[in-house]
């Protein structure tokens, strides 16, 4: 009888402790986040990640981690080995990599070999681009792999003025976006790499008539204007230097993964003077969360990840998004990043609306951003890009664009911090979606 009373007493005490902890938890965790210093927390989370099976981390968690070590560790992780030899078809490896939640796996040493194949394999057919407003070609490489070719339209230093979705595609942006998505550990962007193509030798020989018809010559340079919504003739065409044109190849996703198109809940109206609902409604995010697609599951968190990604690259043009049709838990495929890195002087804050209106972010994404702050992101991305074949002719991102990335990353973290102040970090950081 006495034992039973002690037992009941202990249960009551534990319950009281548990309830008080739950009530105080937002304050406790909010406090510690600020106190620890964000950079250190980020670096620690990286160390934790890198040594997740290693108890050393737990014992040494108070020791300072050097920024330079983190940079080196990350550069090592994302380095590409173009001479990596593959023991099966590069196209099969890449196709087998795709799952409903990622396009390439976390550890992908074969990526270098796949990029090498993209750069060197013979082009066996060339056609006008698939759908869309922008000039591009669809190519098939030896071994039957379909790829998109997005041509170079601007010098790297060209600044796109006007509204945040202006201008033709930036092919270099596709490459930078692909590697950024790796470094952010999102891996939702199709594989992309730069390639110099001789239009006369490699394209005209194998082009379908409807593409060939759009070729012309200007100042002794070979040019073409293709077919697309904004392709109107030679005035909208693109010219090679002589016959060699720089561009980006984007690997086509496996055909059995059919894509489904969705309207983006934070789409712009694209009409001067006409605001979208999300621009005027304070409760917009709440309304989105009441919709079946966003109430539970990964979709809303994927929208927020994508908003962070798009803000970093300066892409304000994600009016629609695509998912893998057969999978309810599909990622939002970060497809079509051509409208990026247009203006390094401008930070288009409205791209972050899903983040600051919902005041939520995946904890995993946030930890990753912490690791990359304080100049680490630009340094790791710059180093990773040096392995792309078109980088040595002209760096894929200018210093101004690299600086813009670090500046924007800080802005994202500031918004998250403001949300912590309002709601407490445990409400803002989402772990299981
Ligand atoms: N790598 C790929 N794998 C599979 N499908 C793709 C790939 N790239 C593009 N597509 C398909 O082709 C469509 C058009 O491509 P993309 O969006 O790059 O062209 P765009 O001219 O920039 O289009 P928009 O003008 O709508 O922005 C995409 O919506 C997608 O359905
Ligand atoms: Mn586009």
From TrEMBL:
One of its GO terms (molecular function) is phosphotransferase activity, alcohol group as acceptor. One of its GO terms (cellular component) is Golgi apparatus. ATP binds at residues 134, 150, 322, 336. Residues 215-428 form the FAM20 C-terminal domain. Pfam families: Fam20C. Its main location: Golgi. It comes from the Eukaryota. InterPro entries: FAM20 (IPR024869), FAM20_C (IPR009581). Mn(2+) binds at residues 169, 336. It is found in: Golgi apparatus. The active site is at 317. Its cofactor is Mn(2+). Keywords: ATP-binding, Disulfide bond, Glycoprotein, Golgi apparatus, Manganese, Metal-binding, Nucleotide-binding. Belongs to the FAM20 family. This is FAM20 C-terminal domain-containing protein. It comes from Potamilus streckersoni.
